[in-house]
Amino acid sequence: MLTGGPGAGKTAVLELVRRSLCQHVRVLPESASVVFGGGFPRDEHEDCRRAAQRAIFHVQRELEAAGDSHAPAIVLCDRGTVDGLAYWPGSTEDFWNATASTIEAELGRYDAVLHLRTPSADQGYNHQNPLRTESALSAGEIDMRILEAWEPHPRRHVIESTGDFMEKATTTLDLLRQELPTCCAGHLGIATPGAMTQAL
Fold it and tell me: What pTM did the predictor assign?
């Protein structure tokens, strides 16, 4: 599972993965993009935020169920169910009551967690994604909340922002390679600079 705050580079890394890996790896879309991109109201009212996070949680669950179909060797998720804690307008206990689950159950859904840290404004944070509404400061705060939410996972890797996306992508892909079946790991490598630019 690949996570991180807004602007961390998840979309670009996942595009590189899609171009590099064999057919045994299934890459899932981000559930929040599915929900908001499909027209779900994006409203700061607390009740709307709760409704949105419940929708994202359940869409994520069903995306993962669909991803497991046809028995892929590995399913790579763009965020996971625990990410909702970072966006929930209430307590942790309230979130798990609202989703009828537990932190233990949800952490257990993911074999490994790769957290890409959100860059600061000086490191290149931007608003190129039309669904991204957060300022650099707000994105950094969300990134910290996501970091805290996934902290109990026993196999979490944190990839810091360095200002050089190529370095960050290389580190992430190296970690992904360690999680892949032998048949797929050999396919995963850094794309050419031209392909990297297109992915960004």
Answer: 0.83
